[in-house]
Amino acid sequence: MTDRLKDKVAFITGATSGIGRGIAVTFAREGASVVFIGRRENEGAETLAMMREAGGKGLFIQADVTEPDQLKAAIDRTVAEYGRLDVLVNAAGGSPGSGTTITETSDEEFWHGIKLNLYGVWSSCRMALPHMIANGRGSIINVSSVLAIFGSYGRDTYTAAKGGVSALTRALAYEYAPHKIRANTVIPGVTPVERYGSFVETEEFKACLERIPLGATSVEEMANAALFLATDECLTITGQEIVVDGGMAATRQMEMPRTVAAT
Asked: Which of the residues 82, 158, 176, 196 is marked catalytic?
């Protein structure tokens, strides 16, 4: 533990697995009080145990980021428990594994993707910002995707939502700079997480990795990028996209695996 986040309170969505879990554990290890939400109770308990093993402290609240009442209650409880809110990380999100084109996508699937990947981010920012304004500073870190930078087959809704996250983040950076609140985006490429399952052993996945200049991105790398943005080491960095993708975006011609999308 190096205490880079000592005395800070962080609220993280989607931390019951994957990148969100990695960020929660890293923040806890670095001295933050971490409150995180997710829908799955068992996985939440696992993340909390990992945080404590890392020497950190925090709280898990079972909640769905797409449900405003649940989200508000979780943020209010965070402030009631720890007295403030310094860092917001929006890591909740996901894309259907099958992947459909815009002409194949139902209205129901579209709105589900938008609600999970964009509305949840918008909603948590709206609810967290008043607390950060009261503090006189804060850091918002939104997890987007390389699909906000370039297109890929069958990810139209996901691309639209993640592109919206990046655009929203830039708007927040400008709008809330007078309150010393920073807003940045971290962009992962292919980051193998739990939901990839056995797909990481397939030839399709291995072929995808071969086309990435520096290979897959680890959860630890993503967590470290978020950690930097959460610290006071970068008080004038705002409105930026920190791309951690092994060079995928540099090629501008990568195709994501169709079976499992990037987080």
From this structure: 158
